[in-house]
Amino acid sequence: MKEIIKYQLKARKGAIQLLLAIFGILNAAAWAAEIQALAHRTNEFTPMLAFWIPISVGVTVCTVIVMFFLCGAGHVDALLYKDTSYLMLTIPRRGWQILGGRFIAGLIEFLIYAVTAGVLLSIHLAIGLLMGENPGFTNFFTALGTSYYQVFIVNAEAVITLTLVILSVYASSGILLTTVTVASRTLVKNRGISTAIGVALFVIVTNWILKFATFLGTTLDLAIPVRFRLENAGPFRIADAIHTGTITSKTFEIPLAPFILFLLLAAALFALSSWLLEKKVEL
Amino acid sequence: MAVILETYSLSKSYFKKSALAGIDLKLESGRILGLMGPNGSGKTTLLKILAGLLKQSAGAYTVAGETDSNRIKGLVSFLPDRNTLYPWMTAADAIAFYADFFEDFDRAKANDMLSFMKLEPTHRVKAMSKGMIEKLNLTLAFSRRAKLFLLDEPLGGVDPVARERIVSTIIKTWTEDSAIIISTHLVNDVEQIFNDVAFIDEGKLILSGDAEALRTERGKSIDKLYLDIFEDR
């Protein structure tokens, strides 16, 4: 499987570099506008800021959301509809090895985008904190360091829990997308029709799963408490800014049953898509 | 001689349309079979089934006695009628890919063939001409010590010099313990290397046998025989 991961990442290298370059250029333009506003102490949402911040943040966030699904599905369409499919489907590897390798490579690719986006957006946050003239932030690095401290140290438990929840949604939605794409490809060879069937199946099956997940969540009393802490924020005054200092921590209950269901479904769908790829997909 | 390929009533149909109808073939080691027929006759369908890209609707086949489709992929070297290599790959990347995935791949032989084909390892697939890509794909396919080589229209769309080089490569890499199937309708260019021939039309095997015996029996070349059989189609 490691060879599949290696070549999938090599195949995606160009696209990854291009997207990271776009992220870098757009965010650098927005930082330049923010630094300019900071230097002039205008405290105004200048036209430069109004243009570059939504563009850079919007493109970065939207790309990460789109890639959440495409990477989760292991870019399976490239395995089914291109001439290069002949190469991948004539190697002596089992369906689960091919799809598993692409899934892991997709996860690595997604993490590259997500971590890069997180770093880039946190820089906006740090500059924003300086622009807001929050007391205690003497420079950019204090602001950035405090932000990271609040997220990764003070709220470490909540961050780990949420990361696991997001990964379970990533795995289940990605594998579902893979399954419906492979299933629709076994039914119809035409890419357009097959993709339409795949999207329709994805929406219908997702709806069923979510209905069942909601039912399980309300029926079974299994929940993980996730507590966001702001009481030790020190100079970090976001809570004050939002709620005039009245909220210092907040606990959410995340129902556990749906996420167990998602992971079980992901395993079953992975077995189904691997079988379909090996036994039913034709080129 | 060991039997490399045996097919038993191999059939493929798409709903009511039959693409392949009950093909029975037996190919022994050391033989080169010319699979001939007009466009749409079922040649590619047969090769794709043997390569594991299509599933037969009925019938069965064995390669070197093996029936498991995944293990058969490790015994069959398939050269399709199109470029299947990733555009980002260089010739060296493509060789590394084959070395990583096929246990029987001979990297030294691939490098030798690459220079015989006058291809640079640093050449990128997306910058190669059709003839260069064909030669690279042939290099990769023939650098395996496979039991069965399947070449789908290897001479289609390449210039006469490249064509000559491809035929020389097939002859050079021929071994006693493997078999080759070449599908083509450019019969004249390759008929001298065929030991066996099989004419296929509308998914049915209409004539097959030893190439030399057929030439003697019918008193004509395989090329002429092809024209006689298919001129009305």
Task: Provide a compact summary of the structure.
The complex is a heterodimer of chains A (283) and B (233). Chain A has 283 residues and is mainly α.
Question: Can you walk through the features of this model?
Answer:
The complex is a heterodimer of chains A (283) and B (233). Chain A has ten helices and two strands. Chain A is mainly alpha-helical. The model of chain A is unreliable at 232-236 (pLDDT under 50). Chain B has 233 residues and is α/β, with parallel strands linked by helices. Chain B has one domain (3-230): 3-Layer(aba) Sandwich (Rossmann fold). Chain B has helices spanning 43-51, 69-73, 91-101, 107-116, 130-142, 160-173, 187-190, 211-218, 222-230, and strands at 3-14, 17-28, 32-36, 58-63, 76-79, 148-152, 179-184, 196-201, 204-210. In chain B, the strands form two sheets. In chain B, strands 5-6-7-3-8-9 form a six-stranded mixed sheet, sandwiched between helices. In chain B, α3 (91-101) packs antiparallel against α4 (107-116) and α5 (130-142) runs parallel beside α6 (160-173). The N and C termini of chain B lie far apart (37 Å). In chain B, 46% of the residues are buried. Chain A binds chain B through residues 3, 6-7, 10-11, 13-14, 83-87, 89-94, 278-280, 282-283, and chain B through 48, 51-55, 69-71, 73-74, 76, 78, 80, 82-86, 88, 93, 97, 100-102.
Mean pLDDT figure of chain B:
89
Poorly predicted sequence stretches spanning 5 or more consecutive residues of chain B: none
Number of domains of chain A: 1
Beta strand % of chain B: 25-35%
From the helix content, strand content and strand pairing of chain A, which structural class follows?
mainly alpha
Based on secondary structure, the structural category of chain B is alpha/beta
Element order of chain A: H for helix, E for strand: HHHHHHHHEHEH
Oligomer: heterodimer
How much helix is in the residues of chain B?
25-40%
The number of helical segments of chain A is: 10
Q: What does the overall shape of chain A look like?
A: globular
Largest sheet of chain B: 6 strands, mixed
CATH topology tier name of chain B: Rossmann fold
Give helix and strand order of chain B, one letter per element, not per position: EEEHEHEHHHEHEHEEHH
